[in-house]
Amino acid sequence: MNFLRRIVARKKGLYNEESSALQQERSLCIQHLRKLFLEFLHPPAPLPQDQQDLKIYLMLPLFLKAFNETDPGDISEKFSDTLQFAGHTSTLLVTEVQRRAANKSKLDASKDVIEYLRCHDSEADNRGWNLLLVLSILTESDESVIRCMLAPGLQSILVKCMRLFFSLPEHFIEEPVLLQIKTVLTATLVKLCNHTETALQLIRTDELASLFESLTQSVSNRHVIWRNSISEVVTAITRHCFTSEVIQYIHQKSCISLSLANIQQAGMDDPLAVVEMFVTLMCVLKDSADVSPVLLDGFRDCHGYKFLHGTLLGFSTKASVDDDSKEACRNLVILISSLVMTGHVQLLPSSTISTPFQTKDQAHQLEAQCATWRRSRYFLMSSSKHWTWTCPSRSSL
Question: Which domain, by its residues, includes 125?
Answer without folding.
Answer: 37-202
